Predict the structure.
Amino acid sequence: MKKFSKKSRIIIIVIACVLVALAVACVLYINDYYRATCNVENTQTVKVLQIKEGYFFDGPGSTNALVFYPGGKVQDIAYAELLKEIADRGVDCFLVSMPANLAMFGYKKAGAILERYSYENWYLGGHSLGGAFGCYYVADHVDEFDGIVLFASYSTKDFSNSDIRVLSMYGSEDRVLNHANFEKSRANMPTSYLEVEIPGGNHGQFGDYGMQKGDGEAFIDSSEQKTIAAELVSQFILGK
């Protein structure tokens, strides 16, 4: 049996300790996320169903659908109230659950939803990191979508020569969104681009997961911000 020198044993022990430390750090990072402060419940007009990819918010509409990617390190169901409001107005919604609550690990999941459900018009978007990675997917499948809906997010992908429509909204008190990058991203937007600032809103109130670290203090409540957002989506997609 081969014997290791004292120096080799020390190196092996150090490497093992580093690997264990990295594994522990990874577990801690994955488990350190924003928990939802709301529940997934049916309403009189919107039926919520759990599906393989996450949740389906089935409202009175049947023509238009929005696939929604959650923000980074935010529990998926934190967006249940927002999506119920959107579905109630006639746009069915698919809330996608992401591995480790990070859209970068599951941004292709929209494809399975489009394969299994039939709608005349498809829209994809999401909140913060989720919206950014939603744009990654749309960029490679632009002909499959009618539009993008961004909630406190922006695209690093170039849609400037595309016919796709984009709605972008953010709160005036948002201190999490990188505003410098957001301004630069406008060059990536198509001609049919609508940008709306929600007065008094912040970054986190598109969902229900408490105060996000570094965010600004909103001076409208969370329910009002979500109602405004749902109305904007309804007007953008349905024209009403």
